[in-house]
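Troubleshooting: if your tokenizer reports a length mismatch, compare your output against this known-good record of 219 residues.
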Amino acid sequence: MEFQDCFPIWSKLSEAQRGRVLDSLVFRRLKKGAVVHNGGLDCTGLLLVKSGQLRAYILSDEGREITIYRLFDRDICLFSASCILRSAQFDITIEAEKDTGLWVIPAEVYQSVMEESAPAANYTNEIMAARFSEVMWLMEQVMWKSMDKRVAAFLLEEASIEGTARLSITHEAIANHLGTHREVVTRMLRYFQGEGMVELSRGTVKLLDEKKLAALRDA
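Known-good structure output:
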């Protein structure tokens, strides 16, 4: 799978613009846990995931994390090139949740293409709108959803992503995704276990009753 096959507006760029992108393109391989972008002062460039999984999160002053979105095969991250967006800075960290291969278009190259190409500018706006929708959804969850519903939703989402009901994940990692304390997650999971929805063991959460979890999530 080549970059040209994954970049949605490739056919809409001019020959000169394509050449500029290919000449500057960098392919990177990241090990699980590696950070590819670190905060608003870091202008890494546009990221296009070939394979793997990335997590974008923000960090509070107290050091607490909360996931704002995740990136999978063929997904594009623009916030890692936020320096090209006038009057917009995003203090976001992006790390690999799995071993990941990705392409990086340097920020200055993508900016020059975007300024010349209406399709590129429109596509950039579409990406921004999609990501802001995810951020707004997250705000709604944090503000209006109780923690038991958020934990249930996360477990179901994780099971869908991984394709298994046996999740190799710690309470700390779940807390980091949800922007809460490990102790809160532990209490919720023990409650779920008491209700027969999950089974807990060291570093593992096994979903026993996904229908019951879904009913809780949707209540």
